[in-house]
Amino acid sequence: MAIYKVHGIPMSACTARVLLCLHEKGLAYELLPVDLAAGAHKQPPYLSLNPFGQIPALEDGEVSLFESRAINRYLAHKHKDAGTDLLRSNSLSESALVDTWMEVEAHRFNGPISEILIQILVNPMYGMASEEQKIETEMGKLGKVLDVYEERLSKSKYLAGESYSLVDLHHIPTLVYFMTTPKANAITSRPHVNAWWNDISSRPATMQVSTNMKL
User: Fold this and answer.
1) What is the rounded CA–CA span in Å between residue 57 and residue 40?
2) What is the band of 1 on the pLDDT scale with cuts at 50, 70, 90?
3) Quick check: 69 and 102 in contact, CB under 8 A?
4) Taking Cα atoms as reference points, which of 105, 123, 125 lies closest to residue 175?
């Protein structure tokens, strides 16, 4: 089997998202570091892989892809019979639920949690102050999403049903960082969300990838 080439850095949440999928599928890959400090992601030749100058990018022979969620869909479709069936591809209704909740993660969960992480973790690294009002605003948005999750997870073990899927996987990288912040009680205070997090964070793939997620 060919070795996938992943361009990125292990502490990047988006890169980690792709690495999680590769590990869940048991696929071989080579991680090719991108020197962000030197601006390599904004210059050729990297721009030929991702014209928007962001990481990660994936090469599979002549196929070149960017956007971590799209990469994971590609990998999960191509290797649907390997490792974990992350798309629930043998059931139309289950796969439709996976698609639905992946949209929720991308459009309702990711925005507020990413802004919170920028304010609490990233800004101080660059000598910038955290904006408390912005943090609280985004925490309000995130809390509403997590309330929906709490209700959903009171009825099923995972967000798309009783089986772990790409939906759950896509949440992991940002939550790894979020759980190191003083706002982690947004997860731990919701029993079903907390049980879900304890489950998905203890998977072998998660434990292996998160080891290298050090800011």
Assistant:
1) 13
2) low
3) yes
4) 105
Phi-psi bin for 24: left (phi > 0), alpha (psi -120 to 50), beta? alpha
User: What are residue 29's DSSP bridge partners?
Assistant: 4
In residues, how long is the chain? 215
In tens, the pLDDT along 114-136 reads: 999 999 999 999 899 999 999 99
Q: Which of 61, 1, 59, 49 is nearest to 25 (CA)?
A: 1
Angle between helices 191-201 and 166-178 (to 10 degrees): 100
pLDDT in tens, 176-189: 999 999 999 999 99
Helices (H), the chain: 13-25, 68-78, 92-104, 110-117, 123-125, 132-153, 166-178, 185-188, 191-201, 204-210
Mean pLDDT of the chain: 96
Q: What is the pTM of this model?
A: 0.95
Structure-token match 């002549």, residue found: 62
Two tokens at 71?
Answer: 């990469």
Separation of alpha carbons 154 and 148, rounded Å: 10
